[in-house]
């Protein structure tokens, strides 16, 4: 067992300090040490996207980031999307459009959709399909996920 | 994953010192999209690392700059996403942006670095064929200072490179492509994204009127390393930029330059066939881009 | 994106006053899922929890000469190591995968678990598993089921005895038994023949005969959540298992038999299932329970993606030889088929379903169908959404197009002409109840994809293809409880795992019966100690069976309220009705009692009414088969073999769509899995039986870049017994994709690929380019 490393980071807007085992991934650390079990491990190899988080504004697969690499960074997980107790428009749109079934891919899928809309306020269907390609969903066939992102886009534009 | 020591140096010198101290048991970590997967599966092409030297804090490894005299310089720690989106790259090295822009998912491109892609030395690495047609030089740093070598000499085999223990790939340099050059990279994959190239082809053509003045062709996933297609280039240079020339060059690429194997992704036959079809198509596209129709 | 629901719209005009069923209702648990609050098995933690990691066999067939766990046990942090010899006693039967934890003498497939390590740190457990030293004697592996069927083939394993078919029966109810080949020295696990009429005469009559062989790859369910189980055997002697399963009561019964425990000392808590698709019935629970019993501490076992691909229960490879004949007018005159399903190292391949469907879509007087379930040294197979159906459908639906083409007939018209209807026979002589196959074909004719086919096919290398599919459905008893709360709200409790939004449909059903606003009804899936029995959530039967029980439970509670209201409302129950949260007198709605009043009067101190608990329990004997018609629009690159899916449409008979939002979701999801089978998915083995692509990079699930929005048309031909006419929904959607894409590819480029997935390489070979 190697000595743990003390790191500080900002998690869902709150500063945190913790001792991390370098051979643990950011995903494992967030789930086990910080008890945020929203992000999921579907493959552990960066191929499914269920563990997606936004780190310093960029969408990443947290199953491939080592815990100490998160030092000093600003991390948003699915648990950080709600604001003042209400759902993010993307979250609400997934519910309303029926863009979820088993739900296991959803924490990553919603982060990918949120990240897309952070960078592109009016994505076309093609852009939506490109942006979500790293997030596998086995239940929906994606149709209602495309509709959910389109619905979120419309609602955010209407504000 | 099994345990290891973890270091996060801030400078290239410090990183090199740490790698040197660790010897063969120390490995650099860039974006992690290859090495972390390999370590999880205990499937590294080298002994399981006892020490990991993460390069994510080494800011001097990141960045892209360009000058008319020196050409393009990309820090090895620059992410695929940044390479693919860079106006400097897109303007004169479009094929490289195309290669960097198809690696894995958006998430992969946000983590993976161009140096990592090169050092992982997969025959299918998507940035390698474009780097080869742009005649990239690898700048390597060790305790004895820097050395520069052509990228073609950098690849030694699947997962094997010219890096000695303690050495680090610092940057990639590419000369300014000659005027009237058009280049393109394309790969073939079963899925539209999230896949490994079955075959990757990069082409750079420099035209003088309708004559091919200079041709660079490179292939991915058809040999133990990404390779320049020397026979194809020979069939192109000095010839008219015509379908007949392109067909001859594509045939040469498939039958002489490609040395593919059969694996779970494709058979030898299929790979050779793709090299031929794709090379012929990309030569047309490169010629069109050379004429300013990109 | 056009979401067409034509048939439904025409029905809506008669407006029979439904306010809850038939509406597009959001999932009950939606907010929990989009915020990451939903608890899956891997999210459960306990003090003292030990993580289990298994060692998987590195050979497809080998003898275990010795196992040395010394080094593994010495690794700091390891709690214990278990092999076949030191597990606690359980009733083992090596013939059934589900009755065997670790083999002690012989491994039968690459990836078979042979030992497990327990440690508090999962990384330590994993590392220690790699330190277990096994001496192997490698035996020849039998991998090709077609060769394995021949007399004289090397044998896969010792003969079978006491084969248990209970799990397969959960997916489909068929009045036929396969003939077990127990005890005989053969690799054929079972055989089923179906004959009717005179096939030779039928072919003699035919104007066109097509004879061809069809192959479909072994594919993986690829739920995004791998198998995940936690078990605890505590001081009270109660065995608790939290597990990602579709079948909690089935697991309870199996574990009770395995450990000789009374069923009321076992509590199976089905955690939210992160995708099942038939693959999460009963697999890891026996091992984890045994380990928990051994160490008297909670044990968690989470399969990695690789573990799951090596050692779960994927769907079988099948090789199908098919010969069909048709007369000029498009009448199907004869059908002869041999279906070989590769079962892997244990019985369990869904061969029967394949036989029933290959000869069950179209009327045909002369059939001869021979089904074989064949053992090989590969991972044993399980169910994947309409198990066995896509393999058979790829064959027959390719043939229909080929014969129609040969005869110059329209592929849609030929299908409508021969499609089975109520009263027609299945291959086993069973009579079809009311079904909607013809209506699905008529609906797909109106889809954008089909209507545009002429224009699309005018473009070079584009093609549109059609295929049908279906599933007969499973049947199991079911029950439900409906309780009135003091504030007038209602709790419904069921024992079924909700894997597709069924609890939301139950909310709608109960709200409809009681004429309550949806938000006044809540639904819970209880565990096996707190909920009434339900069959496994498989075979597309949950809404069809448990939904009926919920309907009856709500009816029962309503009738109890009517009885109790007699005195106060001074009318007989038949003169009462429910409306807007009240029981009222028909025609005099101001003479009423609110649900809240009933709630108070039945729960207060000194309450005059007994507590209101509605009970619904059913036996399910009559199936409600579901059919689908699907159309694919593809573009082929004839030089590279690349296939691009431009559009896809599905029409499916749902009987009555209780929640169209979720019915569409089921149709689209199943269709996308069918497309995965058609174009990308294949478990690839080497000549030694080693799986080469145990990951989601090289085992290719379709991504969003690969799948266009799916045009979705709900057809409603009511079933006889289902709640409000609902019939099975979950499974038919996966069935037709492979054949529809195959037919579209042919129409695009003139090449017929006889093996799915239709990879670029296979297409180029069919085109003669390689």
Describe what you observe in this structure:
The complex is a heterotrimer of chains A (159), B (294) and C (770). Chain A is of the alpha+beta class and 159 residues long. Chain A has a five-stranded mixed sheet, sandwiched between helices. The model of chain A has no long low-confidence stretch (mean pLDDT 96). Helices cover 35% and strands 25% of the residues of chain B. Chain C has 770 residues and is an alpha+beta fold. Chain C contains 22 helices and 28 strands. In chain C, the strands form six sheets. Chain C has a seven-stranded mixed sheet, with helices on both faces. Chain C has a seven-stranded mixed sheet with strand order 7-8-16-15-14-9-28, with helices on both faces. A four-stranded mixed sheet of chain C has the order 17-25-26-27. In chain C, helix 8 packs across helix 9, helix 11 packs parallel to helix 12 and helix 20 packs across helix 21. Chain C is globular. Chains in contact: A-B, A-C, B-C.
* Major sheet attributes of chain B: 5 strands, antiparallel
Report the total helices of chain B. Answer: 12
Strand content of chain C: 15-25%
- Total beta strand runs of chain B: 14
Structural class of chain C: alpha+beta
Question: Which value, in Å, is the CA radius of gyration of chain B?
Answer: 19 Å
Major sheet description of chain C: 7 strands, mixed
**Which descriptor suits the 3D outline of chain B?**
globular
Mass-distribution shape of chain C: globular
Low-confidence stretches of chain C: 1-14
* Total strand segments of chain C: 28
Order of helices and strands of chain B: EHEHEEEHHHHHHEEHEEEEEEEHHH
Q: Please bin the fraction of helical residues of chain C.
A: 25-40%
Properties at a glance:
heterotrimer; B: alpha+beta; four-stranded antiparallel beta sheet; 35% helix; C: 770 residues; alpha+beta; seven-stranded mixed beta sheet; 28 strands; 28% helix; globular; disordered N terminus
